[in-house]
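Internal ticket - ligand job 501, zinc ion:
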Amino acid sequence: MDIGIMAGGITRRKSGAIIVGFFEGMKSLGGDIATIDKALEGAVSRLVDRGEVKGKLDEVNVIHSLGRLAADRVVIMGLGKKEGLTLDRIRGAIAETCRQLRKQRVDDITTVAHGVGVDNITPENSAQVITEGALLGLYSFRRHKTKEDEHIEVKKLTIVCSKEDDIRLLEKGSGKGRILAETANLARDMVNEPANYMTPGDMAEMAGRVAKDNKLGFTVLDEKEMQKLGMGALLGVAQGSCQPPKLIIIEYKGKNADEIDLALVGKGVTFDSGGISIKPSSKMDEMKTDMAGGAAVIAAISAIARLKPEINVTAIVPAVENLPGGSALKPGDILTAMTGKTVEIISTDAEGRLILADALGYASRLKVKRIVDVATLTGACQVALGSICTGVFGNNQELVDKIIAAGDETGEPMWQMPMYDEYKEQNKSDIADIKNAGKGGAGAITAAQFLAEFAGDTPWVHLDIAGTSFGDKERKYYIKGATGVPVRTLVSLVMAISGQK
Ligand code: BES
Ligand code: ZN
Ligand code: ZN
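stdout (structure tokens):
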């Protein structure tokens, strides 16, 4: 979709529709709406008087202009109450409105820069979230559809502003929004892809393309190299599948120093059948999304490469398939991880923590300053927080606070879970150093406590995205399927750490 920025009167811009915002409880019409109301000979005020236009969040009223304006339609987009307006509300409202217009076969949309002047909303960040909302909300995954259907693409979105001086700011914001949305959509593409099209090898190939396009350092470790490093936990998970495992490493260097400021580690289980501890067949198809953490960190580093902050970031993705083949890992087996710790396998379905144990071990050996891992780790986290919040766990409150703040900014809520030492008790094994699953509830926390053992003293945060990476309904700028969470938050965190907002 082409996104343009223009200065000039909204009544003169030719397009399929022009979107103006309306606040709940607004008594008198002002600004753009007043201009439009005048051109439509009071049609908007009449609809407000009759209570048809209320301005409730996500209310979309389409009025045909019948030649009274250059645009064919005017859309009155509800933004909720003015006090409490946030950038994320604008992001969500634009997404819903654009989707509705696409249903009406409108492919050329104009909008004003919403919310400017309210609270902390500037022309720049308004254009950013409008761009994000439109690109994320209009996303569709159609690669495997072979027949033509009703679907159309929106070809153009124009953001108009009244002041020439604002054009540059809007362009800057919109440019950033495009990078964030395009990379979140890249993660969505990878996650929506079925497991026969997204094997560990395919993931490595995709990562290689990202690295090449952005001139990033790129290494893939194969089975033999991982054996040499002693990555017994990762290799143990991979051994039941014919698909060879890969450890994918992408390096972004934004400053001239050897130290790595941040390692982003993402779980890349391209299919999780559960292994010998096999999952029930209902909804097992959804386990093609068990590489969403890996996809998120690959997508995030591609956004970082385009935004060029002065910071060094390395993305690490352990990619494996978890199947119950003849040589599969069995409950009761003991594996030795790269750090030398031995792990008793209670459930082969608790495989995410095993591959992350070795990826965290690898990151620690690189002497990174901080680690953030992202994983569809536990059904327990999905039960606890649903599809709204990502679970946050960590050994360093400063880093936890930074990621929560980044999530607030991007509209990807994060909720911190407790990490009391008492939970570690549940991971104690009688015959090995640790076991990969225990009894006693709090499954999301005990999984995080398992990971903590492998992160060691490095400041570390773990994001459990089991509930937030994939959705079954349209909501805000999400559609059914992969959400792209938490790509935008990871990028925002990196910008904050680098001191460049
Ligand atoms: N990939 C799953 C977690 C998951 C569940 C992700 C639902 C997305 C949606 C993970 O590997 C898993 O199976 N975890 C087990 C751990 C248990 C065996 C200790 C779980 O959560 O049940
Ligand atoms: Zn599993
Ligand atoms: Zn899994």
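Auto-summary: The radius of gyration is 24 Å. Residues 269, 272, 290, 351-352 surround zinc ion (ligand 3) (CB under 6 Å).
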